[in-house]
Model the fold of this input.
Amino acid sequence: MAPEKEFTSEDLKLHNGKDQPTAYVAHEGKVYDVSGSRMWKEGLHMRRHGAGADLTADIKGAPHGPEVLARVPRVGVLKPGKPPMDENIPEVLLTLFEKVPMLRRHPHPMTVHFPLAFCLAVPLFNLLYLLFGEVTFERTAFHLLVLAIPSAALAMTTGPYTWWLNYGAKMNINIAVKMTGSSVLFVLLVAGFLWRLWRPGVLLFGGTAAIEYFVLTCLYAVIVTVLGWFGAKMTFPA
Done:
């Protein structure tokens, strides 16, 4: 049996479905030809994964497993070496990720749900207060606002970390919107907290200030909805 053809990472990059008509991908040291797959038109899968790359790490975060590669021809093996995205990551982290893969992909998706929930709930409980006049609704909204600030700070910390690890810190429209929007959101959260702390009865006593404060808290829901939309486009592209 003839030895399998060996590919370096540089060789693999050439088979990206654009510079050459062939589209190859690697997984766990094996190289596959996806040129004939309708899911890899022009060397791009789900508008996110490009051919000519090692997808070993990417498949761990995909909604399917590596079994899908059994449907396409295997054309060779990939010579050992770090993926380009891992070249600047310390060895101690790469070793840790091999043992606990979730530490690579999960920190931001796990932490981002908390500020999303809190920011949606704050205006909801303020609205319930305005509708029913029950003071406990307004107090609950403030307590949720207090929780939203540290949870947003945590999500903003894990975001760049995940971006660096899994996207090579490459800027795109989704990242730009998320970074800008989360910064604006954090400033507005702190502003709302200080306003409510300075004037505890701002919503209770009505008037123009109450309307402005309520609109401010409604902005939390709008911003996290936009952030969630662009975050979902990265995880589940159209």
